[in-house]
């Protein structure tokens, strides 16, 4: 640290060498599945330089060593946030929630009422608006969902956003944008300013890296993985699509982001059922 404050003279003039960019790109690919094109170097360089100054690192080398160090969780999470975006909002890409409401949920609710098991997954859920939007759709159609075997899972690789999602606190102006038919499910927040218990108890949150093998025994009836795979290279995307297909029940739905496309072997079984919407139709079955 310099005598004047927290910025070292060296830190004022960080420039990322090609080798250092390559090291960051390899790290991001290995640990997060991210594909960082060379054209991203100026952006990565300026964002990283800011991070290094904030965290009082004196060189990229020192920062890279810390990413592999024993207390690396915070640094890794910070790097991921810097290379991707957590942008999300309630009922983003609303046509998916219409399909959820009209086509996906009615038979699943019947199934749950007959004592069956229903599982929905928001994979790459960021700060939680996506799984809470799913929960609002469920609760509007099935107010007793929490008493049934009906569960929603919300996961993200970044522990910081998962903590936000669990905390379930959102600013009033964000909540105000929710359509009235769902807004009525958030009549008031609890004493700590959280979304109501009725929504929170439908969802379990956890940290999960989608490029690693999934730890689940049971399958899902619907998976939302939107605006996440866009950061992956094509082989990684194809592996993730395949892993989702394996994780879906026959007839289960996969929703992906508006600029993402299904590709690779999973496309044989994940049949288009709307805009960026796919139904799992394993060979020999019709959904
Ligand atoms: C733009 S947000 C998408 C949020 C929400 N699904 C939506 O569409 O509004 C992308 C999220 O993907 C997460 N992410 C990136 N790489 C991931 C990975 N390998 N495994 C799990 N989540 C990942 C990021 O942490 C971030 O929260």
From TrEMBL:
Transmembrane segments: none annotated. Its EC number is 2.1.1.80. It comes from the Bacteria. CDD domains: AdoMet_MTases (cd02440). Coiled coil: none annotated. Keywords: Methyltransferase, Plasmid, S-adenosyl-L-methionine, Transferase. One of its GO terms (biological process) is methylation. Pfam families: CheR (PF01739), CheR_N (PF03705). It is an enzyme of class 2 (transferase). It catalyses: L-glutamyl-[protein] + S-adenosyl-L-methionine = [protein]-L-glutamate 5-O-methyl ester + S-adenosyl-L-homocysteine. Residues 9-283 form the CheR-type methyltransferase domain. InterPro entries: Bact_Chemotaxis_MeTrfase, Chemotaxis_MeTrfase_CheR, CheR_C, CheR_MeTrfase, CheR_N, CheR_N_sf, SAM-dependent_MTases_sf. S-adenosyl-L-methionine binds at residues 86, 88, 92, 130, 156, 209-210, 226-227. SUPFAM superfamilies: Chemotaxis receptor methyltransferase CheR, N-terminal domain, S-adenosyl-L-methionine-dependent methyltransferases. One of its GO terms (molecular function) is protein-glutamate O-methyltransferase activity. Methylation of the membrane-bound methyl-accepting chemotaxis proteins (MCP) to form gamma-glutamyl methyl ester residues in MCP. This is Chemotaxis protein methyltransferase. It comes from Leisingera aquaemixtae. The lineage of its organism: Bacteria, Pseudomonadati, Pseudomonadota, Alphaproteobacteria, Rhodobacterales. The gene is cheR_2.
């Amino acid at each position: 640290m310099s005598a004047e404050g927290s910025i070292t003279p060296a830190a004022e003039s960080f420039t990322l060498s090609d080798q250092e960019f390559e090291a960051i790109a390899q790290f991001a690919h290995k640990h997060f599945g991210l594909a960082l094109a060379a054209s991203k170097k100026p952006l990565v360089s300026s964002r990283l330089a800011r991070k290094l100054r904030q965290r009082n690192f004196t060189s990229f080398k020192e920062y890279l060593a810390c990413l592999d160090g024993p207390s690396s969780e915070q640094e890794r999470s910070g790097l991921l946030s810097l290379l991707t975006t957590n942008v999300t909002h309630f009922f983003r890409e609303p046509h998916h929630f219409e399909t959820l409401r009209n086509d996906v949920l009615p038979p699943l609710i019947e199934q749950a009422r007959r004592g069956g098991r229903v599982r929905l997954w928001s994979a790459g859920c960021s700060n939680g608006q996506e799984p809470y939007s799913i929960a609002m759709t469920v609760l509007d159609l099935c107010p007793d969902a929490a008493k049934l075997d009906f569960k929603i899972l919300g996961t993200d690789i970044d522990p910081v956003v998962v903590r936000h999602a669990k905390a379930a606190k959102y600013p009033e102006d964000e909540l105000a944008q929710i359509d009235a038919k769902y807004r009525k499910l958030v009549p008031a927040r609890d004493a700590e300013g959280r979304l109501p218990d009725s929504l929170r108890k439908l969802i379990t949150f956890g940290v999960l890296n989608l490029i690693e093998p999934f730890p689940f025994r049971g399958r899902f009836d619907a998976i939302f993985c939107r605006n996440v795979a866009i950061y992956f290279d094509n082989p990684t995307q194809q592996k993730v699509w395949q892993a989702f297909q394996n994780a879906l029940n026959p007839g289960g739905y996969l929703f992906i982001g508006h600029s993402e496309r299904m590709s690779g072997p999973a496309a044989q079984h994940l049949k288009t059922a709307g805009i960026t919407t796919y139904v799992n139709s394993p060979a020999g079955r019709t959904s």
